[in-house]
Amino acid sequence: MGARPLLNRRLAGMGTTIFAEMSALATATGSINLGQGFPDTDGPREVAEAAARAVLDGHGNQYPPGPGIPELRTAIAEHQQRFYGLDHDPDHEVLVTAGATEAIAAALLALLEPGDEVIAFEPFYDSYAACIAMAGAVRVPLTLRAPSFRPDLERLRSLITPRTRLLLINTPHNPTGLVLTPDELAVIAELAVEHDLLVVTDEVYEHLVFSGGHHPIAALPGMRERTVSISSAGKTFSFTGWKVGWVTAAPELVSAVRTAKQYLTYVSAGPFQYAVAEALRLPDAYFDTLRADLARKRDLLADGLAEAGFQVFRPEGTYFITADITPLGEKDGPEFCRSLPERCGVVAIPNAVFYDDAEAGRSLVRFTFCKKDEVLREAVQRLRRL
Ligand code: PMP
Ligand code: GLN
Asked: What is the model's pTM?
């Protein structure tokens, strides 16, 4: 081949995701993996049984319908009504995707023209930067800064230009654990209406909010016709490998996203769609217990990290804790995370990789706490060696 790089310019430098890299490091070194966010305990037995039954009974083993099976679209619409009072027609306002990841990709590929500007909170979840790039659009970061990570909404206003097409928000926010308040969401919504912007909102951690609750921006005045809401079964039901996600939005938006989605995977996860339809109808006790368990694990890990000498930013939501390594006499998160397996047998994620302004996240690292209590306790013991 000639001198031209094989990987196109839009994806240049994106290499392997940090999650794959750090999970491989954990396996290679036999470390406790508090990097990639996946639970070490599977979700409810009855939901797993529903998936097994679907396979054996021949439900979903052949291509399911493009928009998702009607049972799941109905269950998603009921979930939006039950938890947020949002009304969605399962036939025109719900789309099932291959995880939230495909929903994000399809939404951005469908809604953006090359050169459009997308304002997103930095640190960004890694697929946002890649999908904005694949769409040929330009990402414009609104940097969230420690210790509170609250967004500077005056700054947001000043970042809007005539080229801004879309606001990409994420609440609860990975990796900082920030949960947007109703007041913050109201300001963001007003800006979107005033400047006629689209909003794509990633709410995969909607059920992992420890106080104050989750508030979907789609419920605010003027937002219904301009908001694409995204979620997934991975985090809520502890089946991250099933990759069942969804979009809820007005019919024109769903139709645009579906157009892109049908040429990405077309369809996926047939039998799992039946199981997730059942999962979404679990009683409130399921969701309450999930949240209470994770709140306890958050405190266990946060207290342990503080004792080990980190500056800890206790998250309001998600199953991640961001911590600063400066009090340990360390400066460089990526270097720290590369050496941590050897020093302590623990893997974490360097937040710097989620920033355009790497300096803003240089000394921050992320640990997940969706692990068994004894695993978290052992990790904390090991980190005390620092
Ligand atoms: N968005 C955020 C903020 C995430 O942390 C993740 C990781 N699960 C995803 C999207 C992707 O979700 P899924 O596994 O359903 O594709
Ligand atoms: N969402 C998970 C995390 O932030 C990782 C998902 C992935 O590996 N792409 O850890």
From this structure: 0.97
